[in-house]
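User: Show me an example of a complex going from sequences to structure tokens.

Assistant: Sure. Here are the input components:
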Amino acid sequence: MSPLISRLAILLSFMAVGAALAALSGQSAVGLAAGAVLWLALDSWRALRFVNWLARIRDNPATPPPRFFGIRKEASERVQRLLRKQALEAAEHESRLHNMQSALQASPNGVIILDEQEHIEWCNRMACEHFGLDARRDLNQRVTHLLRAPTLVKSLAARDFDEAVTLESPLSTAARPLRLEARLFPYGQGRLLMLSRDITVIEQAEAMRRDFVANVSHEIRTPLTVLTGFIETLQNLPLDEDARANTLKRMAQQAARMKTLVDDLLTLSRIEGSASPDEREWTPVRALLQRCEADARALSANLSANLSGQDAPRHEFVFEGVAVAGEIAGSAKELQSALFNIINNAIRYTPPGGRIEVRWTPEPDGGARFSVRDSGPGIAPEHIPRLTERFYRVDSDRSRASGGTGLGLSIVKHVLQRHDAALRIESAPGQGACFTATFPASRLRAAPATAAD
Amino acid sequence: MTEKHLSSQFDSDLNRVSSQLMEMGGLVETQIQRAVSALANYSVALINDVLDTEEKVDALEVEIDHALTTVIARRQPAARDLRLLLAISKITTNLERTGDEAYKIAKRVKSIVESGESRKMPIGDLRLASDLAAGLIHRVLDAFARLDIVDAVAILKEDDLIDQEFKGFTRKLITYMMEDPRTISSSLDLLFIAKAVERIGDHAKNIAEFIIYIVKGTDIRHSSLTRIESVIQ
């Protein structure tokens, strides 16, 4: 039965009952009307209930409907179905938006979405790390109010988005520089997508490559110039035997210096280009350390003698844990050169009379720490991350005078990396320096497997 | 600056002036950073950069003042809007002077580089203080953009650190000059740089005071920290 006919039937039955009741008093027309009015009142009351329910269900979709009949029952069911469908669609949209946002969050780039007025509409975590933004507080903030780098402001003002903008992050410090590249992409109607990425390492690598060729040429040219000078002297001046011997001795020194430099360069390129050293070659740690100790004392004595005669003050050495029983896996030659390079550095940068402490400390996890602490002048924090760069010099006059090639710490770093070890440098101006190499347990073993004695 | 006015034109006027101020702030910030790293690396290229930016900062100051006059004459603002515009006017002055200090630092660094005495001078402490000052200017501009009075108060407190560094550095320079009179001319240059750094800290402090003025409507210049803190609550 269609709802319309059922409504009509109810109305008619109300009227019929009214008429029947009124027929007793002979006024059936009044009864007919009274029945209709009663039905109208009842129907209006129910309609009111329906409207109230609609108002409530809008705020809380779970509100159960009161008992409805007929046409309103059907209407209420349709409303509920519609609302359920809407809720499902909304949830689906929400989860899709959430997925999109998670994808943008996972991006290794900083992502900032700008609206038509260049207000920040959304930004991901990486963007916050790059620019020091607060993902919640800084929404609706005009982007140029917080990212004030003139290059970016200019590009936004000119709406010129063809080229990437490089800028210094506001969080950048001398010890931890952070250079960023930002790209703007217009989309929709006047909206902008801003991507940023960290280019600190790339810029450093580029600078290093640029510097490398210049440095190598410079380092080789210096002794060559001296050599050429001496050769001209020998060619043009009649020298007596003593002067000749002296000149040749100094030529030999310069040639030796060039040879050291080229040797270091070759070592570097060899350890960089070749495969990881054999892990089955075991060397007693004690042998390595004892050789380091002997070399260190010899070098210190030699330096002092050269500097101010035989009775000059020597370095004060402390060697601890040198008589360790374990063995280490890897290339003995490389390890020897890396460990001694660290000590060599300490000796050259610590004035005679200073104190140098060399320690081999086993770690609880089976690894070990090799540390060299000196009482030298120390290193300013901004130099520390760059010390292992080739030819990086904190003070170029000093280090060349002390006979370094500028490659020692690069070699140390590469050798240690090849042996799964890490180099840590701690220092502050005026407080000496501490270089620590940490070897993992996998590279060490306690006792020799093939005990000869 | 999120509250809307009946006249959306007024809103966009206010926004434009604020944006210009932030642009000027960005320029001054870069100037300081460049001056500071010129000091750290004795780099002449950076120095010229600082000197060039000076003109742009001056031009922006004039432009902002003109825009402010126009907005005040046309809109006759009251309450917070008026405070915002007045504060922007004062902050502009402070920023321009901050730029001047960066300019002075750059010129003095240039003079030290040209004298060839650079290697021997004790600039470690000075760099610490100048990093602090550059950081304060950055933070105070952020605080203005966010109208963040909590950070503004923190900046007021931190300015004292720079003042202490300045005093310590002056004492150190005196010992240098007593030990070796040849360092006097470089030491004097460094003293002027230290003074400029100290002034940058003071300008940051002034700007922080105006941020509190915009938000709270109370002029807290020359007041004690306890009074300032009672105003904030």
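The lines above are the inputs; the final block is the predicted structure for all two components together. Chain B is about 85% helix and 0% strand.
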